[in-house]
Structures are given as structure tokens and as C-alpha cells.
Design brief:
The chain has two domains: 138 residues, Rossmann fold, CATH 3.40.50.2300; 165 residues, Alpha-Beta Plaits, CATH 3.30.70. The chain is elongated. The chain has eleven helices and twelve strands. The strands form three sheets. The protein has a five-stranded parallel sheet, sandwiched between helices. It is 48% helix and 19% strand. The chain has 321 residues and is of the alpha/beta class. The structure holds magnesium ion (MG). Magnesium ion binds next to loops.
Amino acid sequence: MSRVLIADDDRISCKLLGSLLTKWGYQVEIVYNGVDAQRELLKPDAPRLAILDWMMPGLDGTQVIKAVRAIHREFYTYVLLLTSKGQKEDILEGLDAGADDYLKKPFDAQELRARLRVGSRILDLERRLVCALETAEYRATHDFLSGIYNRAAILELLKREASRCERASQQLSVLMVDVDHFKVINDTYGHLVGDQVIKQLALRMASALRPYDLVGRFGGEEFLVLVPNCALSAAMVVAERLRLSIATDKMAIGQFAIPVTVSVGVSTIKEAKLDMNLALQAADLALYEAKSKGRNRVECYVPSEPATKSTSSEDFPCLKG
Ligand SMILES: [Mg+2]
């Protein structure tokens, strides 16, 4: 049931309007001056349809409309201005102030009813448009299978986080995570099970990370994790926790209990030389190192040294999945 706010200092007019609208199926809220109307319409859960009298004590109808239009909200308020002013310039002034429609007093009930229906249609259209935009935005930035960020979105976030960390003189670590022998999982259990593995992986990774870390699906079975405000040594701890969260328990998918492990490459961008591409390349190199050293392990890339450096084999005992 649509809610409508009626604002009119003429109580008899309010009563008449109120009973008509109730009869037509609207849920009616009534105020008797402009100040109350403005307060009600600026509330977060305000009615989205309003009938405002032009001449009211406190604030007049056009002033209320201007206040409503001045704040930017995610929803639109459709305002019908009631006026005994009948001059063309008055009407133009009302529409200029932001009214969507106007009706001259004394109004004809059937005309009012038709105009309210127009208002409802426009609000409905707006609702559907906002919903479609939100859906489109979600689809454009999220991986349809796992629900985490897609490649384009996580790269965009990397750019944002890199410049944020640069401003704040912080380090940003990135983790490149790759499922070990994913092809074998697909070949053994089928691609539908492989899809479920990706979904569960995304969940397990998200729960192993801090709330402000970001994870995206970088490729088929490859994930990129951004760990802001985190030096290399701390990022290695995060990576190891993430690796364990996947390797410790087999994944229960249908009747199968599937051992899944990941290899992780870690690199850190230091302030002053925040180069995202270099960081990604470094994490990739470290990931390659983790793969070649037997998988299910974490390796990091330290730029000052000629080759990659392992902390995994000594510091973290590897679990065989
Ligand atoms: Mg009045």
C-alpha cells in the first residue's frame, strides 16, 4: 500500500483528502504546516508520495519541495502541489521549485486520483530502474560463481588501495592464490564439482581474512587477495592462515570429500614505489616458486634479493592434503 503525506493548513481540506485517499487504498499521513511536512519528508523512511498545499504557515509548499530536492537520496519523492493560485506564472514557479505536478483548488476528485496514479507509476519506474542499476553494477563487479569480486573489480580495488596506502605511508601486501592441481579435480569429479570447490574456496578464504582485506577471483582457479596496511612478515602470516584454512579439512561436496590445497605467492608494495604491476609480477613469481617447491605452501618475493626467498618450509610445516 502506497504511503502519502498530506500537508495542508486547512483541516477540513485535509480531512476530505485523507478520506478520499484512504478509500482509494493509500496509507495516509497528515500534517498541518510546512515545517512538519519538511521534517516528515526528510526522514529516511519518508512517504515517497506527497500532496503539499502551497500556502501554509511556517514554510510554504515550494520551500518544502526545495528542501526535499536539495538533499541527494537514493529514492525519489513525487510531489503534487495543491494551489488556489491559478495564474500561469504561479504554476511555473511551483514546477520550477521542483514540484512534479500541481492541482488547482478546489480539486476534482477523479482528476486527483488519476494524477496520483501517474505519480505512483513514476515511482514504480524509478524503483525498477534503481534495482536494475544495482543488479547491473553487482554483475559487473562480482564473479557470478563465487560471489566475490571479479578480476576487473579487484584490479580496480588494487589501484584504489595502492594510492590510499601511499597517502597513508602504509605498505600494501598482495597474495596470489592458486588451487593446486585443479585440472585433476575437474577431471576426477567433473566440472560441476569443480565449480563447487571454487565456491567453497571463496568462503574459506573470506573467513580466514581480516574484515578489511579484499579478495577477488583473478582467473579460473586463481585468486588475488589485497592485504592493506600490512608488511611482508605479517602478510606471510595471513597467507599461511589462508593456506591452512583450505588444506586442513577436506571439502565436502555431494558424496565426495575432496582434498584441496592452494599455493600462495606474497609480495609487498612499499610506499614511495607503489607499482601495482610490479607487485602482481612479484606475487606471481613467488607463486611460481611455491608451485615448483611442491605446492600447498606460501612463498614470498623480496625485491632486494636476486631470487625468491622461502619462509614456508622452515617456519610453516606443510600439510599434505
Ligand atoms: Mg493553505
